[in-house]
Task: structure prediction
Amino acid sequence: MRVTEGGGVHRVVIVGAGFGGLFAAKFLRRAPVQATLVDRTNHHVFQPLLYHVATGILSSGEIAPATRDVLHRHANVEVQLGEVTGFDLDARQVMVTRPGGREVKLPYDSLIVAAGVGGSYFGHDEFEQWAPGMKTLSDALAQRGRIFGAFELAELEEDPEARKALLTFAVVGGGPTGVEIAGQIAELSRRALKGNFRNFDPKSVRVVLFDGGKEILANFGDKLSGKATSELEQTGVEIHTESIVTSVDADGVEVKGPDGEITRYAARTTIWAAGVQASPLAKLLAEASGAETDRAGRIKVLPDCSLPGHPEIFAVGDMMNLNDLPGVAEVAMQTGIHAARIIKKRVESGADSTPFKYRDLGSMAAVSRRRAIVSFHGLRVSGWLGWIMWMFVHLAFMTGFKNRFTAGLHWMMAFGGRGRPQRAIVGDEIGDA
Ligand SMILES: Cc1cc2nc3c(=O)[nH]c(=O)nc-3n(C[C@H](O)[C@H](O)[C@H](O)COP(=O)(O)OP(=O)(O)OC[C@H]3O[C@@H](n4cnc5c(N)ncnc54)[C@H](O)[C@@H]3O)c2cc1C
Result:
């Protein structure tokens, strides 16, 4: 390993084991550095498939492998569990609170921060209690409890109106996350749960999707958005565009429609899939380095993803803003690798840093069973072919052969047949009937 001027091995601290941090750590495998990857959880989450955990298709392990297992062959990378709480940029230290509350300082020569984003309630944080989002594995498991719990409670409910509210699912946000979860809840009720209940027909489930814009999946353009709308409606999702959720409580949502009228929808399960807010670490780094943040709190980085006045610090992935690149996995992976490559070259040969260039690999969203839309450099694909492409891309990007294999099997069961094997509820998400 190459030693630094101070006499030690070049130390890299990476914050976050999401797509940005994990791919940076993987890239450093053959670099002459000693890396430490810190995350508040012990796993890497494949966020695009969280909704498959929430709707009983995949197990948590299939989308969230242990980070230290993923990196077990990377001898120069150490994985540590801990919550990063701050930075001392002058002393080049990261403050970490370990499980049990012990506070430690991790020294670094280079730092990569990839702490991602959380949900945003646009100034209405009180909605979160009734309309949680889905960013982490525990969010997905909690949503699974709420979704399958609502069916259990509906079976016990004698009052028809109360049962109707239990069997109404409100989804807020018509981007890929909202569309995918709404589509899967509709599929679940119309196919997978057939014959499971004695006191109601799961087909009576109402899934209502609200979006403030003129169309759902607006980033895909009119044509694909239109296709997705009709396919989603065929699956059983009721779509309300130009509809802004103004209030959420335990029993439902209030929505301001295109005519300005407020309508109340009785729904005992509301899922929030609208808006993001950068990790608080973005603000801490911005304040310490003089960098700006955007409206979503994302830190504005220099063209090489570093911070102004601190070429040794990189912010990558969802928490940073570089030319308004989208908050998608590809940007996180590519910026993580870019930062790691700069560090490797600097340590090896003192090479200058280079600006980040994004290779856009397109975007896709699964609308329902065997239906997806794909947009790739002017190519627009939908329906069955889109779904095959969606499946291959997701399998390719999942971590680990075993996970790919079992996820493939579970998809065959869920999409070829009616299987939803992962339905156990272990939390306390089920409310009172
Ligand atoms: C439901 C959902 C569906 C999505 N679907 C798609 C899709 O279909 N296609 C696509 O391209 N993208 C999709 N995305 C976006 C994609 O997942 C993100 O762009 C990507 O995960 C960003 O990677 P990241 O490394 O920046 O952040 P993350 O993956 O969010 O990772 C951040 C990591 O930092 C850790 N962390 C945060 N704060 C701290 C702290 N203080 N201390 C220690 N650790 C900390 C977290 O535990 C986490 O492991 C989806 C996202 C979600 C939530």
User: Anything to note?
Assistant: The chain has two domains: 10-40+82-119+276-349, 125-273+369-432. Residues 329-349 form the longest helix (21 residues). The mean pLDDT is 94.
